[in-house]
TrEMBL record:
Keywords: Leucine-rich repeat, Receptor, Signal. Belongs to the G-protein coupled receptor 2 family. Adhesion G-protein coupled receptor (ADGR) subfamily. This is LRRCT domain-containing protein. Residues 57-106 form the LRRCT domain. SUPFAM superfamilies: L domain-like. Residues 95-175 are annotated as: Disordered. One of its GO terms (biological process) is cell surface receptor signaling pathway. GO terms for cellular component: plasma membrane. Residues 113-175 have a biased composition (Basic and acidic residues). Signal peptide: none annotated. The keyword Membrane does not apply. It holds the Pfam family LRRCT.
Length: 175
């Protein structure tokens, strides 16, 4: 059995490709995190999924989460009882038991959710760029340090050999 237990990690957002290479995953637990929404297609590549735990997340059940309700109705694999936190009219209702037409967005909600998604994407991009830059800087520093150290050792060894040879030659001449 292949599984991922990502419980209580304070995960606030998931990239849509977060699970793309986990085709054999049977159980995914995102229980007790900070997820308010999940992008459509996030679970698309999970062909072998049998159990999905999403409860104890503060889900905003608006038009952006409609797909999840449809998915859970078509695939009854969510066993932890994931519920809506808001809007108030859907609070504490199980996501998989709410009719699609109930998942609505007001203009305000739609703008807010899009802004949050953009912010998470920008933060992920910044983090990835920072990590890649740090990695490249580390490689360059290591390469430069290694080259300098190698050059210094080579120069010292070369100088020592010449000094020893000169000293030995000088000593032999005087004896």
């Amino acid at each position: 059995m292949c599984f991922r237990l990502l419980n209580a990690n304070k995960i606030a957002c998931l990239r849509v490709d977060a699970f793309q290479d986990l085709h054999n995953l049977n159980l995914l637990s995102l229980y007790d995190n900070k997820l308010q929404t999940i992008a459509k297609g996030t679970f698309a590549s999970l062909r072998a999924i049998q159990t999905l735990h999403l409860a104890q997340n503060p889900f905003i059940c608006d038009c952006h989460l409609k797909w999840l309700a449809d998915y859970l109705q078509d695939n009854p694999i969510e066993t932890s009882g994931a519920r809506c936190t808001s809007p108030r009219r859907l609070a504490n209702k199980r996501i998989g038991q709410i009719k699609s037409k109930k998942f609505r967005c007001s203009g305000n909600t739609q703008r807010h959710t899009q802004r949050d998604t953009q912010r998470h994407t920008q933060r992920d991009t910044h983090r990835d760029t920072h990590r890649d830059t740090h990695r490249e800087t580390h490689r360059e520093t290591h390469r430069d340090t290694h080259t300098e150290t190698h050059t210094e050792r080579h120069t010292e060894t070369h100088t020592e050999r010449h000094t020893q040879r000169d000293t030995q030659g000088h000593t032999e001449t005087h004896t």
